[in-house]
Design a protein that fits this description.
The chain is an alpha+beta fold. The protein folds into 2 domains: about 1-80 and about 155-204, no CATH class; about 85-155, Phosphorylase Kinase, domain 1 (2-Layer Sandwich), CATH 3.30.200. The chain is about 30% helix and about 30% strand. It has 5 helices and 9 strands. It has helices at about 10, 25-35, 120-130, 160-175, 185-204, and strands at about 15-25, 45-50, 50-65, 65-75, 90, 95-100, 110-115, 140, 145-150. A 5-stranded antiparallel sheet has the order 5-6-7-9-8, covered by helices on one side. Strands 1, 2, 3 and 4 form a 4-stranded antiparallel sheet that branches. A hairpin with a 2-residue loop joins strand 3 and strand 4. The longest helix has 21 residues, at about 185-204. The two termini are about 30 Å apart.
């Protein structure tokens, strides 16, 4: 939300509430994942009846510079698609941006603009301005909303993203002076949210 800026977790972030709940795994599912024939002794505290309660799901509500953020991370035994899914909604004063990756989208991430006002002209100008950086993107009116169309050439998968991340990381290792000054405070902010969110969920 604040590209290029450094965040101070002590002043910019306020946590409000958090909760957690388990995904229950049967011994057969555990065997499928780990190859272990039986429950290891150290998992004893999380065994309830004939299932393992794996606390991997959570919700968090916090603010970053006054903007409210609600997160939910859920790890089910298996998704319908067999892959991870991601849904996000960003609410502005004149429109909502929604990233959807469900059954309707064929489990492929799609971006939609849901207007709260007359934004057609502004949206068209913005998409046109992005052509130099993202050639081929467009908008397709679908009922009361627009889908942002993204050509396959711009859709880099997980492996391509990871390779690009690795190249950038190694470049920083070779030349530490090139690391942007915002990286350290923003990393601290990121892990403040995750670690304090987990701690808050234990107190709720």
């Amino acid at each position: 939300m604040f590209p290029g800026e450094a965040l101070d977790y002590r002043h910019d972030i306020r946590l409000h509430s958090a909760s957690r709940w388990p995904t229950r795994l049967s011994l057969a599912q555990f065997r499928e994942v780990t190859g272990e024939p039986a429950w290891p002794d150290f998992l004893g505290p999380w065994l309830k009846g004939d299932a393992l309660e794996y606390f991997c799901n959570g919700r968090l509500h916090y603010e970053i510079r006054g903007i409210h953020v609600a997160l939910e991370c859920r790890w089910d035994w298996q998704t319908e698609a067999g892959d991870d899914t991601h849904n996000a909604s960003y609410r502005g004063t004149r429109a909502r941006l929604e990233l959807r990756q469900g059954k309707v989208e064929g489990y492929r991430a799609q971006l939609y603009v849901v207007p709260q006002a007359d934004i057609a002209g502004a949206l068209e100008r913005r998409v046109a301005a992005l052509q130099a950086e993202l050639p081929g993107i467009g908008i397709d009116r679908r009922g009361g909303e627009w889908q942002v169309t993204v050509p396959d050439a711009l859709r880099r998968g997980h492996e391509a993203h990871f390779a690009a991340f690795t190249r950038r990381f190694l470049a920083y290792v070779e030349n530490p002076q090139s690391v942007p000054k915002r990286f350290r405070p923003n990393l601290l902010a990121k892990y403040f949210v995750t670690t304090e969110g987990v701690a808050l969920s234990h107190r709720s």
